[in-house]
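::Amino acid chain::
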Amino acid sequence: MFNNGISIPVADDHPDEFGGKLRSRPRRKRRKSEFRGKSELANRTCKQLTRWWPILVLVAAVLLLIFETSKLGWKSSAVKSELGIHDKKPNVVVSSAKKPEGNLNRLDAPRCLKLLPPEELQQLDFPLNKDSFVPIKKVIYLSESDTPYDTNSQQEMGTTRFNLFTGYQTLNQREKSFKVNETASVHCGFYSESGGFTISNEDKSYMQTCKSVVSTCAFGGGDDLYQPIGMSDASLQKVCYVAFWDEITLATQEAQGHKIDEERFIGKWRIVVVRNLPFRDQRLNGKIPKMLAHRLFPHAKYSIWVDSKSQFRRDPLGVLEALLWRSNFVLAISEHGARSSVYDEAKAVVKKNKATPEEVELQITQYRHDGLPEDKRVNGKKALNEASVIVREHTPVTNLFMCLWFNEVVRFTSRDQLSFPYVVWRLKVLKNINMFPVCTRKDLVNSMGHIRKAKPLGL
């Protein structure tokens, strides 16, 4: 008989699907239970944070305040420590206004100044006397006995700053001083023994021994003293380094621990203390050593002037060879970096409040009246200069030039950039001037900038 039933095979390798579903339910229940537990924990945490958040914010603020206060304390102690270290080191330049130490003692290779190799610098010496033609053979410096005081001269325009140091140059005498032959007569400071700029006999004796000199000055407690670098042993034996101070600067430096030794030196610099400065304007007092080195060092053949804001960093004999001897120049001075015209410079001087509009107008009006052209070049050279470094041979021509230049800054403004082109233009006999580029000046010195303002004399 046929079996009408349907057989369903059952094998162990086919799991019961329904049974599998039943077995998976407990696992799903466990996961759901774990998730619900975490959610409850998060909810409780949020409730606690919501309840206590003002206190947490307050604690965070207190911690932040404590941290910032501790930082200020660290900075204060660090500054005090640094100042204490500086105070204990004499002859180190320190300024609360500026930090020029970044440039100090930087002696990188010159870019534009073509110095001889070190072995040749060591062998350099002053050249023998030259037999070349000189248009001026002698300069006579006028004194009180030569030109007695004339009360009428004080009434002339622009003569109010002349005194017993400069002599009372009239406009007529000024005009004659530019017309020279083999002999020239000119006012050139040190007009009278009672005129001021008093130097001790000991210092005078030392200065008379100098055959070549690098000089600087700081009056009115102005800039600090930067030690020269880069010189050869030969130069140290043949070149004087002289710094002129007044009594205000002396007191300022001593208060900072910069003491003059028994031989009147600080490092390489011989310190000459000047008393009875003749001008109330310290800028004018600074023009005396800057422009009248031939009067201060009567036996010197060469001089290099360096402004107090700069550190001289080259071998002086090498500088003389590169800027004077190599091309037969007698005067070397840097070109102005920004402008070329005297008249443009006059506008800049007024704009920067470096002189009053009235005194600048007085000077420029006189120069226009005399016929000074507006050309940006004078005698083939750039008209405007930057006189922070002056290198020169002491010849009758350059000595006369510096006297004429000095008289202009006394008569008009002390901004010597304005009067330099005028004197070059008027003194036709001075041709061989080396107007070197700004990059050469930067090779010569490390510029620090002025540290503090000089105090005027209370005259």
